[in-house]
Specification:
two-stranded antiparallel ribbon, eleven-stranded antiparallel beta sheet, 2 domains, Immunoglobulin-like
């Protein structure tokens, strides 16, 4: 600014990023376009820039096109949702994820971020900047500063593959308008440095007051 250069460190991601109570979401290569487009986002609570850009929060959103388009299937890591239940009060999720043989999640050393949405409705978000504290040999647990969100991860060993069972509970969820069933729900999360996302159909129950999977 004013002829000088200011460096603002930002971590860009296709997943989710949070700072100062604000969360932004990117988009990976893949459906619905399938043409190599993806979106990177980053955010910082204090940019250090002068007016009109600072000195407060700064978010960056970059729309990109990979040429040639890579094969998304080459990236390791997968998540399977075991169960999901959403009401006007609470969101509960249970999922099993496997980061892949070359990845070792650091649950206490990395923030935990979750964003659940359906269409244009953000159902629930959670940001645990301190990550998940270790409780014993195989359990990691974290809570948001306001106590509204809790995330727990337990280590599993299935058929020689390292995997993890994750439980999520978020209070104060927002039900999307559901005129038909099933309702598509997008789940994006990052725990221990492992980023994953799912798009799954939730069934409408109790006259639209509850969504359930499977």
């Amino acid at each position: 600014m004013n002829g000088s250069t200011v460096a603002v460190p930002l971590t860009l991601t296709t997943g989710v990023a949070a700072a100062g109570g604000t969360m932004v979401a990117g988009a990976p290569i893949g459906p619905p376009t399938g043409d190599g487009r993806f979106t990177l986002v980053g955010i910082t609570a204090s940019s250090g820039l002068g007016p009109p850009f600072g000195p407060g929060m700064l978010s960056v959103r970059l729309s990109c096109l990979a040429t040639p388009r890579p094969d998304p299937d080459q990236f390791a890591g997968q998540t399977t949702l075991v169960s999901g239940n959403l009401t006007t009060r609470t969101l509960n999720l249970r999922a099993i994820f496997a980061p892949g043989a070359t990845a070792t999640p650091d649950f206490p050393g990395a923030p935990a971020i979750l964003r659940i949405s359906s269409g244009g409705t953000v159902i629930a978000t959670a940001y645990l900047p301190a990550g998940l504290a270790q409780r014993g040999r195989s359990l990691f647990v974290g809570r948001s500063d306001d106590g509204r969100a809790a995330v727990g991860v337990r280590t599993l060993h299935r058929s020689g593959q390292l995997s993890f069972l994750m439980g999520v509970r978020i209070q104060g969820a927002t039900l999307p308008a559901a005129s038909t069933t099933p309702v598509p729900v997008d789940i994006t999360y990052e725990v221990g440095g492992f980023l994953s996302r799912m798009s799954l159909p939730f069934r409408v129950k109790h006259h639209g007051t509850r969504l359930h999977f499977p």
